[in-house]
């Protein structure tokens, strides 16, 4: 396994047909440069749909929104036949109004894939050559510069998608793209990649920039990372539970079955497997632990269930026809106009799912930070040294790691405020309710990144605590004693884990031992104060790339519980 990058799910070219794209496919193309092609069925649908559009344009009889009219509040303006190409061009030029830093390359690639899959459904009226150009941009690594801000999530992600189309279209000003690590004019990038830009024809501008595609791409990547994060959070929980010599009863399968939530059952089963063989669990007379330990299956389990809903929504959205109008060639022959003007571009499904993801994942960070706090406080940690360091007082140990976690948890409380409850009307009040789905998805991605660091910090502290537990290391701390007259004197107390002697090396659980060993291969034991930021960066990287998960699942001989599948049952 590449330690810097998680491995792809599949090898070989991905055939897109508008209906079978998966979350894992999006990740493969976005992060692992998997190649893409159109399925034969998709090619046939696209060509049939475009033939009807060309016929309408040629005959000039029908009035079709976005094809022979203006857009949005200008829908009542009829456009002459000889000005339809200019209509598409002007739309893209005028709508390329994004601001802020460019979206990450992986988000751009995911966006291009989801947009191509939408067009492959054959409802959009795009030309096959234009769609193939978009596919070739994915395959040859031409990544348009798409500013991350400026979309309200209806009519789709107009601003960022228009920046994408600037790179694809010929005779357009201002388009930029990244190619082989360099930012350049789009026409230069396309020329170097040997891709010919296209002149947009009737309806193609609208087909390319209408739909909450950037929102879906951002949310899809955030969901995938969240599902991996859940496994990391369960590993960190198990390490902390072991380090604090926790009580296993709260994870008993009968307890989980008595409530019946799928995510809770899965979480408790994972933790039980991780701790199998541990000599530290149930090694005290305690009958129960604090909520951050005892109630973890209920909290992380609820997050699992929320993410199952998000997966259902996004799996549907990345296979959806989301532009307007849509062309349905199977409408009755009596209906000459085969287009239906609709609202599939509205990002509300993605906005609500992204907001739910943000709130759910923020809770993973909240409870992980509480366990980190307990590990560092010697009054709560069942005998671990203050701040998890030898000679505490002289050394500050991992104190600041918890400060960082607290700062990120606090930031998440702001980021997780739901964007979907906000709406500011646009387009002269024609678009009088918008979803803010792009903001919701961007914020969800930030929350996930913060919690990756928070969980990494918990692993860092838990690994340090397990060093003390298993090795019986001595440590000293400074305390103050006060006499009857109120005079305080300094006293250095030396501790030894165990009963006045160095204890034997206790065995860890099969899963937690693998996690500890993987962590220690990259982060050294903290014997005394040193700059912590390299350790924090490494910890977050190990969470993000799944290195600890890989080590644990290899040791267990089977994967931890995957994401729950939520499906809609037909009546």
Name the poorly predicted regions. Answer: 1-5, 473-478, 492-504, 567-571
Task: Give the total of beta strands.
Answer: 11
What is the CATH C level class of the largest domain, in words? Mainly Alpha
Domain count, please report it: 2
| Strands in their spatial order, largest beta sheet | 4-6-7
CATH architecture of the largest domain: Up-down Bundle
Mean pLDDT: 90
Q: Gyration radius, to the nearest Å?
A: 28 Å
Describe the model:
The structure is a single chain. This protein has 571 residues and is mainly α. The chain folds into two domains: 197 residues, Fumarase C, Chain B, domain 1 (Orthogonal Bundle), CATH 1.10.275.10; 253 residues, Fumarase C, Chain A, domain 2 (Up-down Bundle). Helix content is 50%, strand content 8%. The strands form five sheets. Strands 4-6-7 form a three-stranded antiparallel sheet. Strands 1-2 form a two-stranded parallel sheet. Helix 3 crosses helix 6, helix 4 crosses helix 9 and helix 9 crosses helix 17. The longest helix has 35 residues. The radius of gyration is 28 Å and the shape is elongated. The protein starts with 13 loop residues before the first strand and ends in a 15-residue tail after the last helix. The N terminus and C terminus are likely disordered.
What characteristics describe this protein?
disordered N terminus; Fumarase C, Chain A, domain 2; mainly alpha; three-stranded antiparallel β-sheet; 571 residues
């Amino acid at each position: 396994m590449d330690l810097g990058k998680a491995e792809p799910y599949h090898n070989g070219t991905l055939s897109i047909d508008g209906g079978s794209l998966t979350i894992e496919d999006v990740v493969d193309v976005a992060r692992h440069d998997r190649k893409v092609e159109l399925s034969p069925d998709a090619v046939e649908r696209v060509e049939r749909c475009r033939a009807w559009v060309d016929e309408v344009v040629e005959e000039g009889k029908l009035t079709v929104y976005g094809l022979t009219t203006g857009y949005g509040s200008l829908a009542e303006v009829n456009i002459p036949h000889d000005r339809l190409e200019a209509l598409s061009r002007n739309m893209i030029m005028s709508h390329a109004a994004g601001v802020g830093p460019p979206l990450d390359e992986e988000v751009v690639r995911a966006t291009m894939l989801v947009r191509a899959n939408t067009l492959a459904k054959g409802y959009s009226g795009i030309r096959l050559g234009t769609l193939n150009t978009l596919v070739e941009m994915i395959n040859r690594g031409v990544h348009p510069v798409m500013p991350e801000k400026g979309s309200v999530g209806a009519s789709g992600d107009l601003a960022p998608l228009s920046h994408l189309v600037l790179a694809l279209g010929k005779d357009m000003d201002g388009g930029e793209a990244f190619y082989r690590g360099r930012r350049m004019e789009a026409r230069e990038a396309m020329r170097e990649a040997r891709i010919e830009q296209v002149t947009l024809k009737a309806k193609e501008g609208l087909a390319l920039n209408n739909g909450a595609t950037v929102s879906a791409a951002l949310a899809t990547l955030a969901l995938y990372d969240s599902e991996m994060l859940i496994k990391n959070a369960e590993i960190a929980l198990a390490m902390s539970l072991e380090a604090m010599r926790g009580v296993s009863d709260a994870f008993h399968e009968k307890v989980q079955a008595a409530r019946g939530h799928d995510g809770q059952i899965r979480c408790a089963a994972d933790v039980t497997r991780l701790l199998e063989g541990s000599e530290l669990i149930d090694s005290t007379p305690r009958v129960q632990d604090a909520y951050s330990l005892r109630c973890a299956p209920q909290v992380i389990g609820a997050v699992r269930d929320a993410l199952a809903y998000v997966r259902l929504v996004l799996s549907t959205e990345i296979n959806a026809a989301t532009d307007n109008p849509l062309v349905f060639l199977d409408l009755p022959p009596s209906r000459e106009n085969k287009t239906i003007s609709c609202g599939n571009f509205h990002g509300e499904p993605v906005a609500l799912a992204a907001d739910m993801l943000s709130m759910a994942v923020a809770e993973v960070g909240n409870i992980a930070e509480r366990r980190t706090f307990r590990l560092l406080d010697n009054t709560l940690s069942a005998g671990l040294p203050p701040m998890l360091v030898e000679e505490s007082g002289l050394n500050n140990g991992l104190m600041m790691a918890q400060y960082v976690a607290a700062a990120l948890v606090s930031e998440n409380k702001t980021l997780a405020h739901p964007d979907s409850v906000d709406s500011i009307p646009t387009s002269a009040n024609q678009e009088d309710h918008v979803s803010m789905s792009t903001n919701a998805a961007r914020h969800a991605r930030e929350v996930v990144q913060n919690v990756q660091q928070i969980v990494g910090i918990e692993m860092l502290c838990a690994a340090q605590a397990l060093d003390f537990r298993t090795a019986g290391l001595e440590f000293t701390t400074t305390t103050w004693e006060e006499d009857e007259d109120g005079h305080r004197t300094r006293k250095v107390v030396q501790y030894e884990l165990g009963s006045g002697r160095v204890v034997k090396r206790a065995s860890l659980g099969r899963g937690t031992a693998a996690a500890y060993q993987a962590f220690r291969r990259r982060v050294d034991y903290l014997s005394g104060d040193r700059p912590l930021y390299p350790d924090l960066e490494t910890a977050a990287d190990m969470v993000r790339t799944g290195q600890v998960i890989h080590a644990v699942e290899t040791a267990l001989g089977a994967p931890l519980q995957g994401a729950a599948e939520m499906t809609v049952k037909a009546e």
